[in-house]
OBG-type G domain-containing protein (Physcomitrium patens), 400 residues
Amino acid sequence: MGIVERIKEIEFEMARTQKNKATEYHLGQLKAKIAKLRTQLLEPPKGSSAAGDGFEVTKFGHGRVALIGFPSVGKSTLLTLLTGTQSEAAAYEFTTLTCIPGIIHYNDAKIQLLDLPGIIEGASEGKGRGRQVIAVAKSSDVVLMVLDASKSEGHRQILTRELEAVGLRLNKKPPQIYFKRKKTGGISFNSTMQLTHVDEKLCYQILHEYKIHNAEVLFREDATVDDLIDVIEGNRKYIKCVYVYNKIDVIGIDDVDHLSRQPNSIVISCNLQLNLDRLLARMWDEMGLVRVYTKPQGQQPDFSEPVVLSTDRGGCSVEDFCNHIHRSLLRDIKYVLVWGTSAKHYPQRCGTQHILQDEDVVQIVKKKEKEEDGGRGRFKSHTTGPVRIADREKKAPLKQ
Ligand SMILES: Nc1nc2c(ncn2[C@@H]2O[C@H](COP(=O)(O)OP(=O)(O)OP(=O)(O)O)[C@@H](O)[C@H]2O)c(=O)[nH]1
Ligand SMILES: [K+]
Ligand SMILES: [Mg+2]
């Protein structure tokens, strides 16, 4: 029996089992079994290279956004509208057969938008090009789940389930469960609060299913069995998702109103170019990008090209900012001056662990260039950016 059939069989058994206190342990065990099988399903077949015939698209820009949806919901039309890159759109299904990248220029940042083939129910089990599409979704910072506003509302759940089945967790935070495998000592189970979904016995059973006999488990929230399994599996990807209802030009105003009130949703029409600015603003918010502008001493900040940082990718501290400019910069830095929302007063003198916020302005003050500098303690305050430093030093020595 194949893995997919085994999953189906267990799902059938679960559906048949009544949910109550007595079956709780059994159901938990079945959930763990399914999770294990799904992980197996994701492993590339033996002998094939992991990359296989996936959609190899090089990452570009400050973040990556993927368009996921059923066929003919308007993904390609949207890519063309937002990026100017032509992606063929047509009234028949599966017009797009591969991954088409485009670039959105927004708020001085460049965001890579990826058009993808439509996926269908069963994608997570390898139907259509589902697996490749989902792999791209996993590599993104934000998923735009494109839905046809005139079609069944159930599509949203079906697609969410498909992505969940392969370990994506949409608009969720990682469970607050500390889990560490040990070599000896058995299982220690603790919690910082009253648990209503999982008790010690259930936790033991799940761990047993994974053949884990020595571990430390600490629940820091009232998490569920599914959360525990996610933590044990350890390969879950927590990702932001905006549900984009397209084609609102063909439905009534009441339906538009209803859809716009769904969680994490936005309604648009590519044909009438309705609400696309709101979609971009929403996407920007979800990406959590932080633009930092550099200010050379005694000059206006350079507002033309920010350094773009991200909390999720690499972090937003002064240290991250410096590393972004040049690896060696951190060694030479004395402190930075910060203007903007992260500063308590203007300018605030900050160390390398200070966390920057969007649209902050930073001036870097370097350590004394040479200690044997006649002891006069002359500091140099440099503009940042390897190119700009080089340029300036060529043109004129820095004011001191
Ligand atoms: N009424 C209406 N039709 C739209 C809208 N956006 C796209 N369409 C139409 O929907 C059809 C499918 O559009 P595509 O952009 O090819 O959809 P897709 O999701 O890329 O489709 P596949 O690549 O086949 O998965 C085309 O006939 C578009 O003209 C819209 O806002 N309103
Ligand atoms: K199409
Ligand atoms: Mg398409």
Q: What stands out?
A: Residues 14-46+175-233 form one domain. The chain has three domains: 14-46+175-233, 63-171+238-287, 289-395.
